[in-house]
């Protein structure tokens, strides 16, 4: 079981943000449909949680790289500053 979880984590880490988000949407659809058995639902939930954490981490990393434009007193761009999220 631990090997399978490690393999799943590796597979999730290898996904692009877009692919991870698409898979997460598929999981939500499956869970909401009620088509999955209880055991499958638990596995899907765990996979979905790992995908959610991966997407959040990638978004936070991208946000940290964003710079916002600083405007001077005259309203013209005067440089950049790190994005502060606010």
From TrEMBL:
Keyword Cell cycle carried by entry: no
Transmembrane segments: none
Entry EC number(s): 3.1.11.6
Listed GO biological process terms: DNA catabolic process
Main location per the UniProt record: cytoplasm
Gene Ontology CC entries for this record: cytosol; exodeoxyribonuclease VII complex
InterPro entries: Exonuc_VII_S, Exonuc_VII_ssu_sf
A Pfam family matched in the record: Exonuc_VII_S
Subcellular location: Cytoplasm
Keyword set, alphabetical order: Cytoplasm, Exonuclease, Hydrolase, Nuclease
Record field: catalytic activity: Exonucleolytic cleavage in either 5'- to 3'- or 3'- to 5'-direction to yield nucleoside 5'-phosphates
A GO MF label: exodeoxyribonuclease VII activity
Residues spanning the signal sequence: none
Subunit composition and interactions: Heterooligomer composed of large and small subunits.
Protein role: Bidirectionally degrades single-stranded DNA into large acid-insoluble oligonucleotides, which are then degraded further into small acid-soluble oligonucleotides.
Family listed: Belongs to the XseB family.
Protein name (database record): Exodeoxyribonuclease 7 small subunit
Organism the protein comes from: Allosphingosinicella indica
Gene name in the database record: xseB
